[in-house]
Amino acid sequence: MVDLSYQVKAGDTVEVKQAQVYKEEPVYYVLNKPRGVISSVSDEKDRKTVLDFFHHIPERIYPVGRLDWDTSGLILLTNDGEFANLMTHPRHEIEKVYVAKVEGQATKENLRPLTQGVKIDGRKTKPAVYQIIKQDIKSKKSVVQLTIHEGRNHQVKKMFEAIGLPVQKLSRIQYGTLGLTGLQPGEFRRLSKKEVSQLVNAAKGN
Questions:
Q1: What residues form DSSP beta bridges with 185?
Q2: Burial of 77 (0-12, 13-18, 19+ CB in 10 A)
């Protein structure tokens, strides 16, 4: 008789059709995602996905959260479901830093609403922190760094659009305690135990 409520314990052997099943070792990677790459394990239109950079990795990893097709930068990949849920759950508010090239002149005046929260999709965002990196008066374009603690769909683009500064180019440069130092677009590395612990602690601290 098969007991479907049985909880597998340490030391148990699990078999499916006489083939033993092994639990994969948890692995954690950070990838500098280029623009034009889908944050998914597959794509029905046969476009390039983040997993195309990990052909030689034996574990069945998947992206933690997502970055838009036309957004570049830092994305995590893992086979640890508990870790992925911890990183993406709204209540944990992990800090994320983006750099946006926008149309128009970014000023303290027109960026101020971002620090107070702007309404997108019928809900007000939580206060963000900005830094004006560059202003090009001739081309009427600006580069702004924005730090947020949420992960709503297309959030950064919608926040800038709400204040009249449409995003032309967007990149995520930091996720919690992690940055992209040493990683060119398309390159990745495995996280250390210390880095994983720092991310977990940052999430549980909120």
A1: none
A2: buried
The three-class DSSP label of residue 202 is: helix
Residue written as token pair 């340490």? 10
Which amino acid appears at position 104 of this protein? G
- Domains by residue range for the chain, with CATH: 28-91+176-204 (3.30.70.580), 95-175 (3.30.70.1560)
Which residues are marked as active site?
68
For residues 168 and 19, give the distance between their C-alpha atoms in angstroms, rounded to a whole number: 52
What's the rounded mean pLDDT across residues 170-189? 97
Question: CA-CA distance, 30 to 103, in Å (whole number)?
Answer: 30
Between the alpha carbon of residue 23 and those of residues 7, 12, 60, 196, the distances in Å are 14, 11, 11, 19
Decide if 71 contacts 96 (C-beta within 8 A).
no
What pLDDT score does 13 carry? 53
Q: Calculate the CA dihedral of residues 77, 82, 88, 94 and round it to 10 degrees.
A: -90
**Percent of the chain surpassing pLDDT 70:** 88
Location of structure tokens 């086979």: 79
